[in-house]
Amino acid sequence: MVKPKYKLYTPGPVDVPLEFLKELSSGLVYHREASFSAIFESVRKGLQKMMLTKGEVHLLTASGTGAMEAAVSNLISHDEKVLVATAGRFGERWREINLRFGAFVDELSRPYGEPIPPEELERRLLANDSARCVFTTLTETSTGVLHDVKAFGEICHRLNRILVVDAVAGLGADELRMDDWHIDMVVGGSQKGLAVPPGVSFVALSQRAAERVDRAKAPRYYFDLRIARRYAAKGQTSWTPAISIIYALDLSLKRLNRIGMPKYWKAHQEIGDMLRAKAAGLGLELFPKRPSNALTVMKMPQGVDGVKVVDICRKRDKILLANGQGDMRGKIVRIGHMGPVTKVEMAKVFGCFQRALKQVRGRAR
After folding, report:
1. SS3 string of 215-234?
2. 190 pLDDT more than 90
3. How far apart are CA 43 and CA 254, in angstroms?
4. Are 231 and 209 contacting, i.e. CB atoms less than 8 angstroms apart?
5. Dihedral of CA 214/217/223/227: which sign?
6. How do 295-299 and 332-336 pair as beta strands?
7. d(C-alpha 80, C-alpha 302), whole Å
8. DSSP per-residue codes, 164-181
9. Does residue 258 have a pLDDT over 60?
10. Would you state the pLDDT for residue 365?
């Protein structure tokens, strides 16, 4: 099998730095020995520091969707009412998972590209006192929308609701302060802002969420956080973990936390601002009304097929951008910059996109 030869600038997974890849080739330790416990604890503490939380953190050998399922199965009971605030395909995934676990879903949605206004969330919660858990996204990678989860957290805390945030894509690039913002559960993954291969996800819980885990009645086994809590007390995971990926994750977190989250957020904001300005300079309209700093999503001009633009970049420049999903395929192009990238690097990537766009525009005429 011939592996594709391009560099990833998709909304995840992202290109993995060479030093992280080298960690993957380290010899394995046994996951029930003290040598693994030391790495495990280092990663958990690193995640706490990154998410600015003192709450418990659990590692899962699964994709980000596995962490989403863990959140639902550990928080709800059959026939319980929940509120899902969605503005894209990954918010819709919260709806689908909750339905599979027998919840009654009240969905607060906006058209693709628009964020949920916090005041709408508050009005819906005031009108639906039986929905005790709220599920939403920080960064909606299907559209590039960034939600105001700080405001969501204040509202949910004041109204005594549990706020669950899918931060798989935005964590690292977009600001998130779990404890200060009253977020009760955050789910994340290894393969995006942390720039590690896919395979490890994680959930962080507030004290309120941890207490609810003990009361929830949904069926669970592999993702049972009560079991994970017992093993974590011994410095272990419930089941056999993705040990090599955890090695790389530990190195990634150490590097990121040495930089410091405020500085890392600022760097991604500067990159996002730069690409948004370059897009405006070409007369392109951004798709999201409230854009994330993890990716730049642009509407394609009339008559321009984004699929062709992405294909030219892949074949000619050996870089992979992302098309839109579903009905948005060909109508938007997404450039991911959630990992450890630089302004110089992303300016070159945008230059490749600009040349491809010009080429497709010329053909359209």
Report:
1. HCCCCCCCCCHHHHHHHHCC
2. yes
3. 9
4. no
5. positive
6. antiparallel
7. 45
8. EEE-TTTBTTB---TTTT
9. yes
10. 60
**Amino acid, single-letter form, for residue 178:** M
Please report the pLDDT score of residue 363 as a whole number.
75
| Type of residue at 26 | S
State whether residue 105 is helix, strand or coil.
strand
* Domains parsed from the chain with CATH numbers: 7-13+261-364 (3.90.1150.10), 18-259 (3.40.640.10)
The CA distance from 72 to 102, in Å, is: 10
pLDDT digits 0-9 by tens, 86-134? 999 999 999 999 999 999 999 999 999 999 999 999 999 999 999 999 9
Structure token digits, residue 38? 């030391």
Helices 64-75, 207-215: axis angle to 10 degrees equals 70
| Cα–Cα distance, 64 to 68 (Å, whole number) | 6
Both tokens assigned to 72: 């639902």
Q: Output the CA torsion sign for 188, 295, 293, 125.
A: negative
Task: Please give the radius of gyration of the chain, using alpha carbons only, rounded to the nearest integer.
Answer: 20
